[in-house]
Structures are given as C-alpha cells and as structure tokens.
Amino acid sequence: AELKPAANLTLETAHYTCLLGSGIGLDPIKSSLNGNYSDDKQLAQYFQCMFRMYNLLDIQGNLRNETIFDAIQSLEKDHALTEEGVLFCQNETSYMNITQNEIAYEFFKCFRNYTEKAYYWSILKYLLSKHQDMYAALTPTQSLKLETVHYTCAMGSDVQLQAIKDSLNAVYSSNNQLQQYFQCVFRMYGYIDKDGYLKNDTMLNSIPTDDKDKTCTENAIKTCQHVWTSSASAIAYEFFKCFRNETDSAEYWTTLKELSSKNEKQDVSNVLVDFLL
C-alpha cells in the first residue's frame, strides 16, 4: 500500500512481482484462469498485488471503478462484455462479507465467470504456460541487486514498510505479509527451496571472502539452521529473527537500514526491470 504502482509495467513484470512476493505457485493461478478456484490465502494475496500494481485498488483495498473502466478502453475488443462484467461484479462484491485482502480475488472470480469467452483469457493462459516453475528458474547470484529484491518482495507481499524497518532493528511482529516478504527475499537469493526448506550451504557459500564479519555470519547461519516452525511460509522470517539477533554487531545491518529508509512512494518500475524482464 505504501509503494506506488508503476504506470509502464508490463503484464509479465507485474505477474512475476506478485508471484514472487506472494509465494504462490503457478498451478493455483492457472487453475483460477480456467475457472477452478481455491481458498489459498497466498492466491488472494497474488491477486491483491496484481490489482495494486495496476492501481485497481485504493490504499484501503477498495476497487477503483474509474481506473478499471479506463483500462477497458485499451482492450482490442469485447468492450461491452467487459463493461457488463465489471458492473455486475462490482455490485456482487459490495454485498459480500469479505476482508479487504480478499476483494481482488473475489472480484476476479466473478469477473472470470462472467467474461469467460473474452479473448484476453487466452493471452493470460499463454503467459503462464511460458514458465513451468519460476522458483526453479531463479539462480542465486550475488549480482542480484538488493534494491530490486526488496522492492519486488515488498510490492508482491503488500507488507507495510515500517514492519520491515522494525525487523531490521530487531523489533519483530507476526503477520502473514511480513512472512511472505522474507520468504520472497530468501527465494530470490536461493536460500530456501520451493518447498520452504532452508538451503544452508547456499547461504554459507554466498558470504563474500573479504567480509570482515565472515566468521560471525558463518556461526550465525550454523546456529540458526535448526529453527523450526509449523508453517513452511514462516521459516524464512524465523531464520531471519535468529540470524539478526546472532549478528547484531555486523556492519551490513547499516546498509539494509539505509535501503529500507528510502522514499516509500518510489516508483518500482526502474528497480524491477533489470531482473524481471
């Protein structure tokens, strides 16, 4: 909610941002495009992210009717059907007893059913068919910009930036969006696999040889590799909390704090494009 959507984002960029940030797999998204829905909270987060990326939701999580109708004008065809679907589903969702985090997905399901024969669904299905496993395609690399990772995961998870800042200062909280943010960061660097298991060897191998805090970092990774949680989506944040406490004096926390203190309204397009496209 604190990050401004980029006006020139491609559909593919928005998709990958929300895929990585929400932690959802491709199969539930494909199923939804085919009219087979689920109650997965990460799926609702994915659609909320997509709607926010295109400014279809306001900061309170309500549908932005004017923006939706403006977007319709760019369609090649099926304008009448699309407008009917938007009006019908806006009315339907207004009577639903749902949270703000769920409104995007509920609107999508209604809209997908109403406009089933519209041409754009085949385009979306084609986009998803291009990559079978996004997480498997992510190669851990030190050249991946920390800023790119941060904004990708912040935008995709819809986490409040203050919660990230607090965590960097060892003030922790428990909420799903914060957990999704750290899960996304760990995945982009290859520190957890697609099933949520920590990859400790990858972490150890990623430590620069000239890092003056190398020994401290190695010891912390070995100490924290045994953290446990009943939820696979929470393991990254649990590891982070342990690691943050064990390396409190390390110099790199200063760098991360500086990153998180940047302009909260920054347009994300420039920092996403070098990795996602």
UniProtKB/TrEMBL annotation:
GO terms for biological process: sensory perception of smell. Gene3D superfamilies: Pheromone/general odorant binding protein domain. Coiled coil: none annotated. InterPro entries: PBP/GOBP, PBP_GOBP_sf. One of its GO terms (molecular function) is odorant binding. Keywords: Signal. One of its GO terms (cellular component) is extracellular space. This is PBP/GOBP family.
